[in-house]
Amino acid sequence: MENCQENANVLKEGLEKTGRFNIVSKDKGVPLVAFSLKDHSVHNEFEISDMLRRFGWIVPAYTMPADAQHITVLRVVIREDFSRTLADRLVNDIGKVLHELDTLPAKVTAKTELCEEKGIENKTDLSVQRKIADDWKKFVANKKKSNGVC
Q1: CA 7 centroid distance within chain
Q2: Which of these ranges, 34-38, 47-51, 92-96, 132-136, has the smallest mean pLDDT?
Q3: CB burial of residue 36 (10 Å; 0-12, 13-18, 19+)
Q4: What's the Cα-to-Cα distance from 5 to each of 8, 79, 97, 129, rounded to whole Å?
Q5: Of 7, 8, 33, residue with least CA distance to 22
Q6: What strands lie across the sheet with 21-23, from one edge to the other?
Q7: CA distance 88 to 5
Q8: How far apart are CA 145 and CA 64, in angstroms?
Q9: pTM of the entire structure?
């Protein structure tokens, strides 16, 4: 367990050196590192999680429960087979992902600009899901009326 905690500290220190993350996990208890971006204006934790998969890492991104949904974190649980070499490699791969994200346009900004250009109202995910569900219900209702066959 001591080795796991040491490797968690190596990962934590490597992330702090990038200057781009807030460490939100505590040093006591389960050896894990939970961290979030300091600046969410361009990219988010879900993009980092997605891009890390290309390097073979599964680093889940989570939103916090009720009353803290605005907070998103990435979480790495340090297991017995997670060596210091792997911790260094993960920090290096996160650095590559950050560099690549810096060269890409921001998804949030790009989506907002596209909506403004086309005169489309920028809807929330929930309102889009409701619209899809309503349209689907209408489609199914019309299908039942016209065919009479399942």
Answers
A1: 23
A2: 132-136
A3: buried
A4: 5, 9, 25, 42
A5: 33
A6: 21-23, 32-37, 72-77, 61-63
A7: 14
A8: 44
A9: 0.69
